[in-house]
Amino acid sequence: MTDARTLSRWLWRGYLHRHAAVIGVAVCLMAIEGGMLGLLSYMIKPMFDQIFIAGDRAAIGWVAGAVFGIFAIRAIAGFGQRVLMMGVGQRVSAALQSDMVAHMLRLDSAFFQANAPGVLIERVRGDTLAASTIWAVVFSALGRDTVALLSLLAVAISIDPIWTLIAVAGAPVLMGPMVLLQRWVRRSTRRARNIAAGLATRLDETFHGIDTIKLNTIEAREGARYADAVDGFVDAQVRSEAGQAGIPAMMDIVAGIGFFGVLSYGGLQIIEGSKTVGEFMSFFTAMALVFEPLRRIGNVSGAWQAALASLERLHLIFDEQPTITSPDLPAPPLANPHQADVVLQDVAFAYGDLPVLHGASFTARAGQTTALVGASGAGKSTVFRVLTRLADPQSGHIRIGGTDVAAFTLPDLRALFSVVTQDAQLFDETVRENVVLDRDDARLTDVLDAAHVADFLPKLARGLDTRAGPRGSGLSGGQRQRVAIARALLRDTPILLLDEATSALDAQSEAVVQDALDRLAKGRTTLVIAHRLATIRQADKIVVMDQGRVVDEGTHDALIARGGLYADLYRLQFADESRLGSAE
Ligand code: ADP
């Protein structure tokens, strides 16, 4: 757990510092706003003694004018400081969010596997807001409420120090319970925000998996699960807010005790005439007004504890550092990437404790097509991940054109690859934006033709400007694939990685997509993972993987002739297909 001082220093230096001037002006305005309360209570004395009791008509004018002036100044100062602080809060929140997103984009893919999207969304949205708006509360407490408190106490003391002492005598008793309560608030708020992040994850999964939910008719189950989770949230949130509400409640008790004491002691003095009614009223007004700022200052610590919980989580994410980064002294980009062989040598990789690659070795020759085959879970996709450095292997070497992949800068390395996977990841942007991303679009028309995107554009409502929907859900599987292929064509990289690119398609789409892929693969070093072995018979080399190892390699004919695992897999599929074929 990071301590409060480190957290607030981090927020101040990183974010609030640059708004110091505005905050300074706002705090001055707050001080003026707070000081007006003291003045107001001070004006009660002449109001009673000179006007109501002595009947001095001449005093009406200046006392009324002064009271109006006090309220007018308070209004202007209060308005000004609120607008200024709100602006600072929003700007800080925006800067925190942007920095956070920029930071998270640099983190390893593993981070995103360990942290569900919903949790991260809640961090970026909820926690940044909580962390940045607390400052308005803290500064108003410091600026307005302490000045109000001090000026009111000054008025009270000037009237009678003993009365003042009696009035605030109960306060020290509360210190102990207050500290305990604050700890409780921090704990329950942290729990509430954790549950809130879990809720966001549930919603994210529910909405993404809506079709699966409907098809399995588990709407009721999902609804009930959400209701349960939300109940848990309500419970934690109510605890947190009850704790926060407990602080002002305690202060009210202190106030009650104070009034009781002063009235019992001071009432007699007025009756005896040693104090004027004006003094008594002025004192009472000051004391009545003192508890409001005092209550707010008390509240601050509760709100501050709550915000600390958010700050702490933000800080944890900012502390997270990527392990997959560009080297300090990077190798220059390859001079002839089209002539670069891709070589894996004894590569071992594990997801946490789960070993996935055990010393995998093979070479994919430049300009040729190399197919990876093997049972599901053999580690084929993982080979693509370590090649592109979405993950780094624990040992072994991966070289492209003789240079270790980790020696390139990440942008240089990733500029070597285009990846087309079985579920093409499109963004909720237009088809054009999905193809172009941040590239130059000069070759767009050619690319759309070659990838057979042009074939279906007329069927879309707004052609190239049709939005693809969240994750491309507005397009069919085959259309998504073709958009992804067009994207890869435009990237025009020397190496192509195809991960079961056609396995999710029907025969007709598959033929079109296969044609687009063939055009894409031309002249490139291609690594292809295919479940349907028929599609890779033509590959220059087939690498057979089993349980994280390369167990065989060669051409289709050679492997069949050898009669190993590949021949078994092939026979199995062939038998399946002919059985399916005869059943049709
Ligand atoms: P293939 O592509 O050959 O089907 P993969 O490379 O996708 O195999 O996966 C190999 C193994 O790694 C599988 O047992 C799979 O369960 C595991 N695996 C894949 N991704 C992850 C992950 N993000 N976290 C933990 N294990 C994973």
Rough shape?
elongated
Distance between the termini: 64 Å
Query: Which blocks of ≥5 consecutive residues have pLDDT under 50?
Result: none
Residue share in helices? 55-70%
Bound chemical compounds: adenosine-5'-diphosphate
Strand tally is 10
Q: What Rg is obtained from the alpha carbons, in whole angstroms?
A: 36 Å
CATH superfamily of the largest domain: ABC transporter type 1, transmembrane domain
Describe the structure.
The strands form 2 sheets. Strands 6-7-8-3-9-10 form a 6-stranded mixed β-sheet, sandwiched between helices. Strands 2-1-4-5 form a 4-stranded antiparallel β-sheet, with helices on one face. The model has no long low-confidence stretch (mean pLDDT 87). The protein is elongated. The chain has 584 residues and is of the alpha/beta class. Strand 1 (342-351) and strand 2 form a beta hairpin. It has 2 domains: 4-319, ABC transporter transmembrane region fold, CATH 1.20.1560.10; 337-583, Rossmann fold (3-Layer(aba) Sandwich), CATH 3.40.50.300. The protein is 65% helix and 10% strand. The relative contact order is 0.08. The protein contains 19 helices and 10 strands. The structure holds adenosine-5'-diphosphate. Adenosine-5'-diphosphate binds at residues 113, 351, 354, 356, 374, 376-382.
